[in-house]
Amino acid sequence: MPPFQGETSPEVRASDFDAAERAAVYRAIRSRRDVRSHFVSDEVEPEVLQRVLEAAHAAPSVGLSQPWRFIVVRERQTREAVHAAFTKANEEASRIYTDERAERYRNLRLQGILEAPVNICVLCDENPTQGHGLGRQTMPQTALYSTICAIQNLWLAARVEGMGVGWVSIIDPNALRKIFEVPAHLSIVAYLCVGYVREFASEPDLVTAGWEGRTALSDVVFNERYEGRERGE
Amino acid sequence: MPPFQGETSPEVRASDFDAAERAAVYRAIRSRRDVRSHFVSDEVEPEVLQRVLEAAHAAPSVGLSQPWRFIVVRERQTREAVHAAFTKANEEASRIYTDERAERYRNLRLQGILEAPVNICVLCDENPTQGHGLGRQTMPQTALYSTICAIQNLWLAARVEGMGVGWVSIIDPNALRKIFEVPAHLSIVAYLCVGYVREFASEPDLVTAGWEGRTALSDVVFNERYEGRERGE
Questions:
Q1: What is the dihedral of CA B115, B118, B123, B129, to 10 degrees?
Q2: Can you tell me the distance from the alpha carbon of B230 to that of A144, in angstroms, rounded to the nearest whole number?
Q3: Rounded to 5 degrees, what are φ and ψ at A138?
Q4: Which of A8, A149, A168 should be substituted to probe chain B, the one whose Cβ sees the most B Cβ atoms within 10 Å?
Q5: Is residue A191 classed as helix, strand or coil in its secondary structure?
């Protein structure tokens, strides 16, 4: 391929991460887990939580809108209310499974709301004034997407601090809205359980429990066009 | 706070990242940029692209559903078709701005579709069979959210490889669907420009261009309840 705009190749590249630093980042990415067990009760120090939230806040956001909001929850009583909302949603969710799959579902550990000393309720302003609407006319969901990027940053930062994060999605967002007094202009995006852990499992819990296996990268990567199977083929 | 489930505190914690490794991860997170300029024409080696895609594929996913799909685009002709779709969407998007803001908009560099040697179109199966529906009954959007987590992993991995990523959201998803022959059961989530760069800007381009400033972390973090302002207050 010819160089573009009159420049000559090879050009000077920014390469400011050495091999050890690159390896650290890849290890954080590979060893991150969705943690539901193994939380220890040790308090999360404010300065550590601050670092992890700063990492979230450094995420990309459409138009630099930074539409994420984080409610840090430590009070036991509040976490008990959230746990009750989880239990209700989980009873309903479990009904779609039958036979052996139902048995497996019952054995899954799905949340650590009470065991993790810190919970974080993540919100999003889906129509932020910050950013002046840049990039959201054709893809209005990008404010929401920015908020998820922030969550993934938080997850990786927590990992290197020795903290696990578990994302609880078996919960009615309206129950969370009521508990946390969230006004209508903010969306409820995620509920995270955060805390130090005894260990990070070498494999995802759902693999170990026989719920689902991992697919190969080659099954999800295509060249130039979508070449995958149609559903049902 | 008392220890839970009969355990004694302080407990043994997993702390397997040393200070230098932690610093590397935080630096990747802080110095990641949404890159639209500074791409160089150097080819991205297949093994480097593989590492970056492996990082994406290691993202968390609801029920281990791994619902992301990646189309790797290198052909110039295809990127030109995408660039034409961007130009059309951008002309429409620019019309909402007037006066000085319109002038600033015109001066923004919003994409690097032709300059970046690799583009990636990111898709999502929003109703995956993989994962057996776990975690998606109360929050069906979580398959989409998983795909965004994968994008953020990719972004950070690219950063440590010296590659920039630019997310182009000013584009009609249906134009991308047509170009890449994407079947109806997959959603068009993102279009990314990926390539080595001359430099990573110290600040986001939108800050430098005077489009938008960064907000303080304290403006987006709340304790125990949502305590922020209602819209318009």
A1: -170
A2: 19
A3: -85, -30
A4: A149
A5: strand
Residue B67 near residue B125, CB atoms below 8 Å: yes
ipTM metric:
0.93
Residue A38 CA: distances (Å) to CA of A41, A200, B131, B154: 10, 8, 23, 28
Those residues whose C-beta lies under 8 Å from the C-beta of residue B29, and which sit 6 or more positions away, are A55, A58, A153, A156, A157, B156
Considering only CB atoms, A138 lies closest to which of B60, B72, B170, namely: B170
Q: Which of A194, A123, A191, A119 is nearest to A155 (CA)?
A: A194
Inter-residue contact B67 to B186 (CB < 8 Å):
no
Ramachandran region, residue A131 (left: φ > 0; alpha: ψ -120 to 50; beta: rest): left
Question: What residue in A sits closest to B21 (Cα-Cα)?
Answer: A24
Candidates B210, B29, B61; CA nearest to B134 is B61
pLDDT band at residue A11 under the 50/70/90 scheme: low
- Dihedrals phi, psi of B206, to nearest 5 degrees: -70, -25
Which two tokens mark A216? 């190969």
Give the global pTM.
0.93
